[in-house]
Design brief:
This protein has helices at 49-58, 98-111, 113-144, 148-184, 201-220, 224-233, 236-243, 247-258, 262-282, 287-305; strands spanning 2-6, 13-17, 24-26, 33-35, 60-62, 69-71. With 312 residues, it is mainly alpha-helical. The strands form three sheets. Strands 1-2 form a two-stranded antiparallel sheet. Strands 3-4 form a two-stranded antiparallel sheet. A hairpin with a 6-residue loop joins strand 1 and strand 2 (13-17). The longest helix is centred in the middle third of the chain and has 37 residues, at 148-184. It is globular.
Length: 312
């Protein structure tokens, strides 16, 4: 008999075999440790409708080691890290219409604009706060520029300090991606999800470094190669958090998804850029609204390409 219950921290729906009762495990939703309840006190599956809908819509698979449910497309158990065997399912990318993406993305944004704006704003503020030491050292550097020993000391401190905001961004970006993807799929996500992507930290940092370095080189080579790389591999982080893919696996899958959707990617990216450009030209503070809107358009495009978004 299966034990069905909900995480006391994030209310994610969980299911495991009754022989796991009383054991401690990590919740795949929030990462906090929980104790599997006894069968007689397990909460009914209907106690949280959004979580139950998520489990039934996205699908799940059960880990043979810890008994925890993970997403159907997960390659390893989201609780204990055990690798799942290949199920042999073919997962073909879908051709997506840019007009549909923009329309549905706008509708989703109008429904959950508070979460979208709040999560994006919190992400930005935390990254700025993390950059304060770098700014402070840059100011100090102006006073030490004519002192060789002081300049060398400054360099010794500023190089590792620059890594702080980059590390914070790499830690939070997967969680932010999960929020926008959750909104696009109508799943139950909240502001706390921003801090739930820590397990992707190293992969996120490595993949983002490779992506932005490749784009930078492409932009220096007559711009067009950089634009092509953006259009071809922009979903890499969505793939990573959605499929629990490796760095190279994320890029490979991203390329497969966009290979038949380059036109759609171009239109969605262009509209998002124009909206942000117009907002910054008129009132820079308006980007607080336009940036998460553009991010949600990308998330909606990815969800459509993977054919895993609800019909509305």
């Amino acid at each position: 008999m299966a034990i069905e219950f909900h995480c006391p921290h994030c209310d994610k729906f969980l299911s495991t075999s009754d022989d796991k009762a009383g054991r401690e495990a990590k919740c795949p939703g929030c990462g906090d440790f929980i104790t599997v309840p006894m069968p007689e006190i397990a909460a009914p599956a209907t106690s949280s409708r959004p979580a139950a809908r998520e489990a039934s819509r996205v699908g799940s698979k059960t880990c043979a080691v810890c008994g925890t449910e993970s997403r159907a497309r997960a390659r390893i158990c989201e609780s204990c890290g055990t690798e799942f065997p290949e199920d042999g399912r073919e997962d073909r990318p879908q051709i997506v219409d840019a007009g549909v993406v923009l329309s549905e993305g706008w509708n989703l944004f109008s429904q959950r604009f508070g979460l979208a704006i709040g999560a994006n704003l919190l992400f930005t503020v935390l990254c700025i706060v993390a950059a304060i030491p770098v700014i402070a050292l840059a100011i100090v550097g102006g006073n030490l520029a004519d002192r060789a020993p002081g300049e060398m000391l400054l360099i010794a401190f500023i190089v590792p300090t620059v890594l702080i905001p980059l590390a914070v961004g790499a830690y939070l970006l997967p969680g932010l991606t999960m929020i926008f993807l959750g909104i696009a799929r109508g799943e139950s996500v909240d502001i706390a999800t921003l801090f739930s992507g820590g397990r992707y930290f190293l992969r996120s940092a490595a993949a983002s470094f490779l992506f932005f370095m490749a784009v930078a080189v492409g932009m220096m080579l007559c711009i067009a190669p950089g634009v092509y790389l953006i259009l071809r591999y922009w979903p890499y982080l969505f793939v990573m958090v959605d499929d629990d893919a490796s760095v190279m696996g994320s890029f490979q899958r991203a390329g497969e998804l966009t290979s038949i959707n380059l036109g759609t990617s171009f239109v969605v990216g262009l509209v998002g850029w124009l909206v942000n450009f117009a907002a910054n030209s008129v009132c820079p503070i308006a980007s607080i609204v336009t940036q998460p809107l553009a991010s949600l358009w990308w998330a909606t495009a990815y969800a459509k390409m993977t054919a895993r978004i609800d019909d509305r």
